Predict the structure of 3-dehydroquinate synthase.
Amino acid sequence: MQSVQAKDYQVVFGNSGYTALNNLLREKNHSIIFVLVDSNTHEYCLSHFLQNLETNRPLEIVEIDPGEEFKNLETCTGVWNVLSELNADRKSLIINLGGGVVTDLGGFVACCFKRGIDFINIPTTLLAMVDASVGGKTGVDLGALKNQIGVISNPGLVLVDPYFLGTLPLEELRSGYAEMLKHGLIHSQSYWDAVKDSDYTSFETLGDLIRQSVAIKNEVVLEDPYEQNIRKSLNYGHTLGHAIESYFMEEESKTRLLHGEAIAIGMILANFLSQEIAGLDASVCDNTSKVILNYYKKVAFEDRDIEAIIRLLKYDKKNSHGTVYFVLLQEIGNPVLNQEVSNELIYKAFDYYKNLSNK
């Protein structure tokens, strides 16, 4: 599969991707190679990766706990201490083998250690492949507030190996699929049609769609690397989606939602807001929302939940001068940025979600 050329690195795929990886390692001649994993990727992914790795450099495995709750500065400190104990220097390399938590945190660890060492990302979840693989966003959460601490810095290479998808439970595949649906909504009718009618459990089908999603995000990032303009469109559904995800993470009475599950809700809410504010056709709003609902279970929201979620909106990274800004759609493939939304409309959006049926 043809690679995708990002700003100053490549996203490579499958078996040919390992050739590119091994060539890069020979070229760079790093002092020590550290492979950052969590306990899941250590068990299910590391062996396959090492079988395809060719290097004579010293190799160290560093393991962290799995899950969003460990994507924090405390975990970073633990990794930095391990790097120091194992004599990492400025010519060391970190290979981040895992989902978005591992690649985001590992990239941030690399950017800060000795003011910056090289890192390579090997995403092992569908979400990380289509979302974290492009854009150079690294960072960690601040409590339950997502991605509040971080920097933009590109890896030396990203290797997408569909083999790892076979290690995932179905709910993790579904979580990543939400980002592909988002790419369809913000990019084009043709990609939306291709994704919405695909089988996210078929790795043969997914392979080409993953590459298309990577290419779509890459196209946006190349135009706007620091999220000053069009890159904000990649946050469609994420303003409320991130707030929902954070709320369900910190509220003990709630069952935690995966990222894609929360973003799916956020996209349905954003569809309604787009209809009300940006002129999205009502039939498009309903049809696309029903497609999304067909893949993700309905979640119940009480008024107190919505109030708490609205309070969390003030921490969204797109905000400026105390104003919460949304990405909305005029039509599929035509997002509009920096839209202000009243709390009254947000309540109506939740009512729309509550009453929506995928029939």
User: Anything to note?
Assistant: The longest helix spans residues 203-223. The radius of gyration is 20 Å. The first strand starts at residue 4 and ends at 5. The chain has two domains: 4-167, 170-355.
